[in-house]
Amino acid sequence: MFERLENDFPVHAPRPADAPVALEGIRVIDFSHFLAGPFATMIMGDMGADVIKVETPGRGDEFRHYPPVPPEAPAQGAPYAWGNRNKRSVALNLKSPEGVAVVKELIAQADVLCENFSTGVMERFGLDYASVKKINPKIIYCSVSAYGREGAFSDRLGFDPIAQAESGFISMNGYNDRQGVRTLSPVVDISTAMMACNAILGALISRGRTGQGQQIEIALFDNAVLMTGYAAMQHMYTGAHPQRHGNTSPDTCPSGVFMSQDKPFYINCGNDKIFHRLAGQVLERPDLASDPVYADRNGRMARRDEIFKLLEDMFVQHPWSYWQPRMRAAQIPCGEVRSVGDALRSPEAKERKLVTRIEHPTLGWIPNVRLPILYSGTPLADPQAAPAVGQHTNEVLAEVLGYDGARIAALEASGALAPAAAARRPEPAAVEAAAG
Predict the structure, then answer these.
(1) Neighbours of 254 (CB within 10 A)
(2) What pLDDT shows up at residue 420?
(3) What residues contact residue 156 under an 8 Å CB cut-off, 6+ apart?
(4) Is 423 exposed, middle or buried (0-12, 13-18, 19+ CB in 10 A)?
(5) pLDDT-derived band of residue 418, with 50, 70 and 90 as boundaries?
(6) Is this structure's pTM higher than 0.90?
């Protein structure tokens, strides 16, 4: 189904066979679903950890069903494939005592547990931190929730756009003549995942020194407040609420989107020196740089509309192919305003080898977007496509727990896990709500 992409993206080049991975020997039991938790564990999988994703037999992680879902690979939609590579999937029924017993054996062999169920779900399974710590005192137990596991709001469910709304993040974005807008990219989920992964790595380093495991809590709301950036401190210094400025900046000028003869582009004059270079070297208007008002950032900000009109009239006279090399030579931070597809196929993305083709057991191959991490000594693991529901159940039970065929068959008979042959399209079923 991806034939149209064969000329756009190269085949993934394997890492050196003898190179170690950063998280070699680390095993992660991943109970998380949707995005914030799974992306955190995927980062660890890319770093070489053995990530075992525990899912409900049949439908699995609800995020699997976000479109588009290839008919040849049911329950393996594009969003799920983006956030779950380098994992093994084990399908266990946690509502059966036998299923929970198997999970506890896996936890006993693990270094990290990550979950983002609604508050109280892990307790009902007997898999809360206090219970798990008795099984494995050295476990790093990471909980990702909407508003924390304790306190007046611990029962609230939350997803990325809700956190964007309640943190003030939405109020900062868009244009001042209309309601604020969320980002279509789930930036709060992604940044929460990064924060969770950082916290887990820190806890693993600490455990290496002390021998002690610990519990980690990451809340979407907490992280969303952080994602408002330095606007939070600006508000507390002045009492003023951040305003929506569209594509312009409240702190610098000129910064924003301009139109060349053929393409839109963004420039960011973050200081006076950049503007002076723009005026003198790019626009060939040194008089603008020496103007007593325009020469100073505060003066330019006070005359924003005037200077934007002046620049717009000049930029539209030539195509982007004229302006871009001039700005690059003058060291002006600038960039073409691209679509996602154009960005993936851009010269910069090709130079950085951001998108490649990797093998897939049913589709032949799929495109893959790599992490922005390049290790010199421990290259990231070669990307393995996100698994089907329960794809590795028998493999993990045999390899990690030493189960033989008879014991696995008994678990299948008890309803603790689905038969290995059950790779059919799953039927819709209710799932526990996720934090993100």
Answers:
(1) 22
(2) 58
(3) 146, 147
(4) middle
(5) confident
(6) yes
